[in-house]
Amino acid sequence: MNKTQGRKSTRLQTYNYSTPGLYFVTICVHNHSCLFGSIGDGEMRCNQLGKIVEQQWKTTISSFPGIKSDEWVVMPNHFHGLIHLLEHSEQRLVQTNTNDHANTTRRKMLIPKVVGKYKMQTSKLINQVLDRKGKTLWMRGYWDRVVRNEAELYRIREYIANNPLKWELDRLNPNNNL
């Protein structure tokens, strides 16, 4: 894996993240703090901050032509979403070597741009509500998976839909003693 400023990248190093297809992303709150609401009876109950996260997802996705949102869910301390890059979405050529220029080019790809804009906008709005400036909301990176086939898409959609039901077992739940 490529190291960027002492961190290992979770991205596929030779993959163009502007390629049409489906991408599953997970974005976590810094220190796994449960800021967006709570789970009750297997259902996510978003508070004011969670509603910002919901609305900003819709706003961010709609701001990129050729991109659609599939299933998504706000959890108390993270967000899961499927992003669909359509055939006619903006394409970017990507160098696949691992030097700094390639890392800069990777940031211009669509999936990192969508996630980056989403994180920036939600951070800005939530920091305004909390009356704080420049505080970190999200963890520095995010997890992604390129969806490879229909069976995998089905499993991911089920995972997203059932995530609130399985909160007690979720590895991102800070109260999980597993």
TrEMBL record:
Where's the Transposase IS200-like domain?
Answer: 18-163
Domain of life assignment: Bacteria
Checking Gene3D superfamilies in the record gives: Transposase IS200-like (3.30.70.1290)
Q: Which InterPro entries match?
A: RAYT_transposase, Transposase_17, Transposase_17_sf
- Quote the PANTHER family the UniProt record gives: REP-ASSOCIATED TYROSINE TRANSPOSASE (PTHR36966:SF1)
Recorded protein name is Transposase
Organism the protein comes from: Kangiella aquimarina
